[in-house]
């Protein structure tokens, strides 16, 4: 796999049972690149370690005054130099290719998993952790995959040099052959502690990333309530914890690096001391002593890769563990395939709660718990957080549909939709039936003032659709972002559209026009709106109250406000005492006849609607 061939047509199915297994799977899928890097690494390292033998031969040729051998040694030095240059260049190329392709494979897997899970991902994994995995963790995983081949080449080179020294000069070669394994294994007792400290650092860094991500996402709200300093203090504390953990980890790695410098130095002293005595006894030549000494000195170069692979594994293992955790997440239902290849049609029914959304009607759902509403909305879209009975579209369970078919049939817009950066035209360029145009959707979502604002911000754009939107729409207000997201959902024109609080950030007048626009534009299509707004509820064909996970009441808004105290409490924020007061007032009047009952009923409805409107205006 080369960089120009990215992205992968199929990144494969990862082994997510553990972090080490995931790393092994990545390496196994890059055997070609790893073998190339290993071969180029061997050429480079062996050429480097061949220099001492050339130097020893040259010294011995000078001592023996042999010009021919000196010329031959010069040729060998040129050959080693060419091998060093070529091997280093191609090793770097192959290693970087392994790094980038491994990181790209992980990022592609993460992107596919994110697209498959949708908004259910952030309910199961913190958004900051997903960001940390897709950025810093991906780089560390790529680092380990890239370092494996270089470590393999370094290890084979060390073995080859030790064997060569034993054959070349047994008296000193045995000392080197015994000392080098000690150098390589001396730091092993320190690695578990270094790994634990690296894990702590990664955990604290991930926590700081999550906190920063959450703070940025809620910056507008924080400014509104004056909570910037509170969150800044929290981030400062988290940042200092990361710094402290990084310092502790760096101290351990500094100790390991120091040992890697100290022990080779001691080995060189031992080799020189032993070699001098052997030379004085006449058992070795001067050139042989220079060769062994130079070989030991240059062995520190491949030995450094032992420390690098230990660091790479220590830092990449927790990163791989987090990546494997995210990649192991799956839909709670496993889509096997549709029955006949066609999208089903009919009523949308949830057997768990008993919620029924008749085909072609606008159904409003009232939940006292906003979190429960979000979970139920995801269930209706075929993405339940937990395994349970499947939602039915007509008579077809949604979990029997492929993921793309389920999303085509049922579209869910959650309460916090995301706007990607780019032009408004690109934002609205989504898969759709073609029946609803951009102008119709923008008009139904009451986006006129949004278009005006975008035009004023970018006067060079002749068409408002060509105006650019900043990342996540941060230059727009909450209500403007919400309306653009609604327009995007309306353009798709799915068979079933599920909206979770689509007007929570707009004023009451705009909300009333949006409610009418949704009703007109979605005529003949199934629409489910999770809301507690009286303006939306009053325009629904059917209103369903879900209480404690089950359907508690079904009817029209005006009737439910009058007849059901639980519904009235959610919609109008009316307490039970106030409800009793209304009942007592109605019963104490002189009219127990139909006119007094009608007046009391109309008064209760009007009072409930007014209370709801006041609450909406205060929220807006």
Summarize the structure.
This protein has 620 residues and is α/β, with parallel strands linked by helices.
Identify the strand order in the major beta sheet.
6-9-10-3-11-12
Distance between the termini: 54 Å
Quick one: how many beta strands?
A: 12
Return the CATH class of the largest domain: Alpha Beta
CATH architecture of the largest domain: 3-Layer(aba) Sandwich
Q: What fold name goes in the CATH topology slot of the largest domain?
A: Rossmann fold
| Individual helix count | 22
CATH superfamily of the largest domain, called what?
P-loop containing nucleotide triphosphate hydrolases
Q: Give the amount of beta strand, in percent.
A: 5-15%
SS class: alpha/beta
For the biggest sheet, the summary is: 6 strands, mixed
Which outline best applies?
elongated
Mean pLDDT rating: 81
Low-confidence stretches: 334-341, 582-620
Helix content: 55-70%
Q: Gyration radius, to the nearest Å?
A: 35 Å
Number of domains in the coordinates?
A: 3
Can you characterise this structure?
The chain is an alpha/beta fold and 620 residues long. It folds into 3 domains: 14-169 and 307-328, ABC transporter type 1, transmembrane domain (ABC transporter transmembrane region fold, Up-down Bundle), CATH 1.20.1560.10; 170-283; 348-572, Rossmann fold (3-Layer(aba) Sandwich). Helix content is 66%, strand content 7%. It is built from 22 helices and 12 strands. The strands form 3 sheets. Strands 6-9-10-3-11-12 form a 6-stranded mixed beta sheet, with helices on both faces. A 4-stranded antiparallel beta sheet has the order 2-1-4-5, with no helix packed on it. The protein has a two-stranded antiparallel sheet with strand order 7-8. Helix 17 links the parallel strand 9 (496-500) and strand 10. Helix 3 packs antiparallel against helix 5 (127-168), helix 5 (127-168) runs antiparallel to helix 10 and helix 19 packs across helix 20. Residues 334-341 and 582-620 have low confidence and may be disordered. Residues 50-306 form the ABC transmembrane type-1 domain. InterPro entries: ABC1_TM_dom (IPR011527), ABC1_TM_sf (IPR036640), ABC_transporter-like_ATP-bd (IPR003439), ABC_transporter-like_CS (IPR017871), P-loop_NTPase (IPR027417), Type_1_exporter (IPR039421). It is found in: Cell membrane. This is ABC transporter ATP-binding protein. Keywords: ATP-binding, Membrane, Nucleotide-binding, Transmembrane, Transmembrane helix.
């Amino acid at each position: 796999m080369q960089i120009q061939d990215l992205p992968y047509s199929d990144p494969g199915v990862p082994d997510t049972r553990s972090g080490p297994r995931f790393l092994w799977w990545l390496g196994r899928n890059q055997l070609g690149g790893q073998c190339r890097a290993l071969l180029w690494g061997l050429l480079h390292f062996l050429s480097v370690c061949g220099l001492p033998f050339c130097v020893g031969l040259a010294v011995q040729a000078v001592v023996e005054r042999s010009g021919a051998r000196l010329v031959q040694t010069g040729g060998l030095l040129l050959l080693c130099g060419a091998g060093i240059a070529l091997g280093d260049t191609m090793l770097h190329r192959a290693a970087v290719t392994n790094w980038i392709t491994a990181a790209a494979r992980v990022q592609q897997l993460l992107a596919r998993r994110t697209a498959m899970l949708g908004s259910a991902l952030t309910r199961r994994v913190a958004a900051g952790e997903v960001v940390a995995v897709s950025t810093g963790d991906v780089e560390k995983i790529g680092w380990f995959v890239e370092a494996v081949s270089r470590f393999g080449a370094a290890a084979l080179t060390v073995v080859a040099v030790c064997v060569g020294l034993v054959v070349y000069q047994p008296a000193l070669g045995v000392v080197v052959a015994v000392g080098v394994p000690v150098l390589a294994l001396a730091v092993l007792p320190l690695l578990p502690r270094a790994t634990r400290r690296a894990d702590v650092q990664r955990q604290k860094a991930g926590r700081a990333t999550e906190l920063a991500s959450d703070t940025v996402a809620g910056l507008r709200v924080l400014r509104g309530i004056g909570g910037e300093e509170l969150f800044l203090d929290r981030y400062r504390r988290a940042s200092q914890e990361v710094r402290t953990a990084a310092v502790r980890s760096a101290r351990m790695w500094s100790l390991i690096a120091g040992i890697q410098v100290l022990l080779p130095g001691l080995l060189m002293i031992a080799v020189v001391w032993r070699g001098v005595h052997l030379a004085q006894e006449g058992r070795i030549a001067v050139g042989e002593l220079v060769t062994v000494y130079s070989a030991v000195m240059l062995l520190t170069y491949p030995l450094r890769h032992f420390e690098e692979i230990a660091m790479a594994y220590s830092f990449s293992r927790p990163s791989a563990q987090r990546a494997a955790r995210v990649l192991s997440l799956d839909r709670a239902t496993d889509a096997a395939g549709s029955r006949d290849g066609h999208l089903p049609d009919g009523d949308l029914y949830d057997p768990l709660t008993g919620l029924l959304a008749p085909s072609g009607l606008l159904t409003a759902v009232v939940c006292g718990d906003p979190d429960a509403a979000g979970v139920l909305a995801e269930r209706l879209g075929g993405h339940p957080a937990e395994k349970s009975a499947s939602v039915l579209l007509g008579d077809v369970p949604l979990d029997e549909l492929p993921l793309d078919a389920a999303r085509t049939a049922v579209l869910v817009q959650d309460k916090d939709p995301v706007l990607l950066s780019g032009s408004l035209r690109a934002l609205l360029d989504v898969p759709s039936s073609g029946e609803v145009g951009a102008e119709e959707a923008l008009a139904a979502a009451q986006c006129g003032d949004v278009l005006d604002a975008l035009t004023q911000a970018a006067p060079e754009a002749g068409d408002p659709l060509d105006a650019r939107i900043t990342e996540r729409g941060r230059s727009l207000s909450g209500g403007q972002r919400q309306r653009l997201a609604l327009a995007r959902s309306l353009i798709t024109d799915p068979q079933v559209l599920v909206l979770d609080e689509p007007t929570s950030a707009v004023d009451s007048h705009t909300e009333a026009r949006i409610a009418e626009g949704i009703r007109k534009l979605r005529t003949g299509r199934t629409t489910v709106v999770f809301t507690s707004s009286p303006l939306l509820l009053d325009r629904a064909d059917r209103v369903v109250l879900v209480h404690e996970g089950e359907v508690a009441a079904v009817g029209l808004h005006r009737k439910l406000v009058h007849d059901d105290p639980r519904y009235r409490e959610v919609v109008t924020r009316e307490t039970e005492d106030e409800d009793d007061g209304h009942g007592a007032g109605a019963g104490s009047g002189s009219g127990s006849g139909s006119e007094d009952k009608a007046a009391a009923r109309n008064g209760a409805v009007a009072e409930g609607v007014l209370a709801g409107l006041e609450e909406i205006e205060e929220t807006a």
